[in-house]
Amino acid sequence: MREISFVEKVRAKGGKVYVTGGWVRDYQRGAVPKDKDYVITGLKAGEFQALFPEAKCAGISFPVFLLSIEDQTAEVALARRERKQGTGYRGFWVQAEGDVTIEEDLFRRDTTINSMAVELPEERLIDPYGGQRDIENRVIRAVSPHFSEDPVRALRAARQAAEFGFTVASETISYMAACRKELVREPGERIFGELKRALLSPQPSIFFRVLQNADLLAPIFPELHALIGKTQPVVYHPEGDAFEHTMAIIDGVAQETTNPITRFAALAHDLGKGTTPKEMEPHHYGHEERGLNILEAWRKRLPFPRLWLSTARFVVAEHMRAPRLKKPGKIVKLLLALSHLPIGAAEFSIIIKNDHKGLPEYLAHADDYLRLIQSVHGGDAPTGVTGKAVGDWIFAKQISLYKNASRKAIFSDGKSGFA
């Protein structure tokens, strides 16, 4: 169905159609808008269903329908009022009747930049709470104190600040802080969802810094909060404590890859420093093993995907050792392990480069070395070499190839290859 046909049918029955939410916000920001969400006023649920019998009802506590518009499955909601009467994001009384205005529907939303609508077909902007102004000023601002009624809005505000490079208004920081008691009881899936989107932002550190400003980092991400104040040798880490170092690394890695698995591993790489005994600082001996324990505890609270965890474990365990390897056998073992790592050698190297301000030669040209050592096959083993001895022969051959190649390698003009 064409959008104009949809609008005309609704208007013919006395209703009005608005595009709302992220599409309007992104259009006003000059970004490419994504899927449209629609809000209808002036109709009741039964009237809408009679008008569009093909629409599928997707809402449980309030009327939301799925309808094909312009060859896309779009969400169409009836305008609604909300009143908090319980805890968490489900603790709302909802009313969606035909007399709810678009201004009332927008008022229940979280921030001003998400509380704009465009009336169709005139494309008239409805902006009762100053969203356009706040976009111009690059500010995340709560529509009202109702912001605190859904605690995950605190994470969403911090995440959108990271996504758009906006600041958060001081009053909104106060509303975020008021979410603390309920936020710690929210399902891990909701918290992880916001963390994942924050890690995909251009500057993920903003997310964590905003949460710290709102006194939410400690209760929600205590593993990261524990890094604050943990001193490090200035010669290696002039950026400051372990938290500042981690924020610098996650932003640096984000400049080089959009892979959320790599970004998460970078975020987790120094978690063990948060439990370093004070008398040991500024050194953090054994923080790799402690980091694995902390990562395991974090896993019990949030539903991290299996590949995220396996990659982070590898990076936590190897990020200090990898740049210091000298023995060919250990280097070959690590290269082979990297070939099975979900992010591969190239993305692992992004983390190491940002953490250590450079790469050892074998990581800088890991793909070349891997192609070489992986060219060895058991079928090439000498006659009479069988069983376990075949594996030993393969490994010895790989070490020999690596040693010879590393002595003869020629790298010029930014290109790598073996003579």
Mean pLDDT: 92
How are the strands of the largest sheet arranged?
A: 3-4-5-2-1-8-9
Major sheet, described briefly?
7 strands, mixed
| Number of DSSP strand runs | 13
Low-confidence runs: none
Total of helices: 21
Which percent range describes the beta-strand content? 5-15%
N→C terminal distance: 62 Å
SS-derived structural category = alpha+beta
Describe this structure in words.
Helix content is 47%, strand content 12%. The chain has 21 helices and 13 strands. Strands 3-4-5-2-1-8-9 form a seven-stranded mixed β-sheet. Strands 6-7 form a two-stranded antiparallel sheet. Helix 6 (152-164) packs across helix 10. The termini are far apart.
Quick recap:
This protein has 419 residues and is of the alpha+beta class. Helices cover 47% and strands 12% of the residues.
Layout of secondary structure:
Blueprint: H1 3-12, E1 16-20, H2 22-29, E2 37-41, H3 45-51, E3 56-57, E4 64-69, E5 72-78, E6 81-84, E7 92-95, H4 102-107, E8 117-120, E9 124-126, H5 131-137, E10 139-140, H6 152-164, E11 167-168, H7 170-177, H8 180-183, H9 188-199, H10 205-213, H11 217-220, H12 222-225, H13 242-254, H14 260-268, H15 287-299, H16 306-318, H17 328-340, H18 344-356, H19 361-364, H20 366-373, H21 388-408, E12 409-412, E13 415-418
Helix pairs in contact: 6-7, 6-9, 6-10, 13-14, 13-18, 14-16, 15-16, 17-20
